[in-house]
Write a structure and sequence with these properties.
Length: 45
């Protein structure tokens, strides 16, 4: 095998490994409840 083909295979394996690693990380956060006053002036028709 030529060196360029071997280097391409190594790069592809590293990219796939990085994608698998990033996909298994849990980065989800719980939603934060926010209380906000909503004016109801537009409903008085």
């Amino acid at each position: 095998m030529s060196r360029s083909l071997l280097a391409l295979i190594v790069v592809i394996v590293l990219l796939v490994g990085g994608l698998v690693f990033l996909s298994t990380r849990t980065t989800g956060t719980e939603p934060v409840r926010m209380e906000k006053v909503v004016p109801l002036d537009n409903l008085t028709n």
